[in-house]
Amino acid sequence: MRRWMRGAAPLALLALSACVQSGTVEPAFSAPVTNNDTPYSSCLGGLSALAGTNLPVFAVGEVGDKTGQFQATGNGTSTALTQGVSEMVMSALYKTGKARLVERYDLRIPLAQAKMAEQKLIGADGAIRPGGIRGSDFVVVGALTELNYNIVSGGARLAVGGIGGGARAVVINVGLDLRVVNSRTFEVAYVTSLQKQIQGFEVEANVFRFFGTQLVEFDAGMVRNEPLQLGVRSVIEMAVYQIMTDFLGLPDAPQCRVTKVEFSKDLLNPVHGEGK
Fold first, then answer.
1. pLDDT at 84 over 80
2. Domains of the chain and any CATH numbers
3. Is residue 174 within 8 Å of residue 232, measured between CB atoms?
4. Contact 235, 176 (CB under 8 A)
5. CA 257, CA 43: separation in Å to the nearest integer?
6. CB under 8 Å, gap of 24 or more: what pairs does 248-251 form?
7. Which of 37, 47, 249, 253 could covalently link to 96 via disulfide, CB atoms 3.0 to 4.6 Å apart?
8. Residues 6+ apart with CB under 8 A from 73
9. Position with higher pLDDT, 273 vs 114
10. Is the dihedral of CA 250, 103, 193, 189 positive or negative?
11. Cα–Cα dist 210/3, whole Å
12. Can you tell me the distance from the alpha carbon of 72 to that of 172, in angstroms, rounded to the nearest whole number?
């Protein structure tokens, strides 16, 4: 009897395992997949409705994060800003519908295509032959150059016996510098330098609200990634809009123009006093 039970136990476990594996488990699902637009995406989309088929060819080179900013995470440190800036520039150019894109950022793609053509691994109908890869008219390169925390902060707080409340506001900003290089002459044909401020207000102790309903924590000069990356994508899309309108001459929409910041003339005047 005992011998039979010893033999039956593994069989029972095997049958139980089979039942578990054959069943299906419904995966958890929260928010649906959405497009990744910013308030400036409609400006880029508006360009696609303009007439014209003789489209310039753009390549996007390295647009890196040169802010040198890192933040602490549970597993050590990570960059504070996205490392996918070049890809964001490509997406913004595509949204305009007024640019053709060629791959130069990942050179493995055109090099592999040329190699297959040399080895006659690609058919002749519409194939890219050696030396026949489409060239670009312009190359876009640049960098994220600024990430400034807590530009201004203000508010009031009252506490009695360690218990109280108050309200505070903070402002951070991201800056982007892009340049357009003529692929034939290597002349820098256009440069744009933009920044975007991200404002937040405190909803409870050390917890700030950015971009409407998005809650992020602001503590010791750090914020969580999501609102910063939305700011980065926004400033990139505005820079690409400038390239298409200011540089290429496409008509711009009044609501899509860059907001110009005017500084007080007092900031440009030397201080009067000793030595004057």
1. yes
2. 39-157+166-254 (3.40.50.10610)
3. yes
4. yes
5. 9
6. 248/56, 248/98, 250/47, 250/50, 250/98, 251/50
7. 47
8. none
9. 114
10. negative
11. 68
12. 18
Does the reported pTM lie above 0.85? no
Helix (H) or strand (E) holding 44: helix 41-47
Token pair belonging to 271: 């201080």
The residue whose two tokens read 């990744």 is 36
3-state secondary structure of 20: helix
Do the Cβ atoms of 237 and 92 come closer than 8 Å? yes
- Residue whose C-alpha is closest to residue 38's, from 239, 193, 215: 239
For 217-239, b/e burial (b = at least 16 CB within 10 A) is ebeeeebbbebbbbbbbbbbbbb
Burial of 44-65, coded b for 16+ CB within 10 Å and e otherwise, reads bebbeeeeeeeebebbbbebeb
Give the alpha-carbon dihedral of 253, 254, 259, 261, to 10 degrees: 130
Q: Are 49 and 127 within 8 A, CB to CB? A: no
The single-letter code of the amino acid at 26 is: E
Return the structure tokens found at 28. Answer: 């958890």
For residue 148, the model assigns a pLDDT of: 82
Query: Tokens in use for 34?
Result: 């959405």
User: What number of other Cβ atoms are within 10 A of residue 170's Cβ?
Assistant: 21
Write out the DSSP string of 101-120.
EE--SSTHHHHHHHHHHHTT
CB 41 within 8 A of CB 96: no
Tokens of 8: 């039956």
Query: Is residue 77 helix, strand or coil?
Result: strand
Pairwise CA distance, residues 95 & 93, whole Å? 5
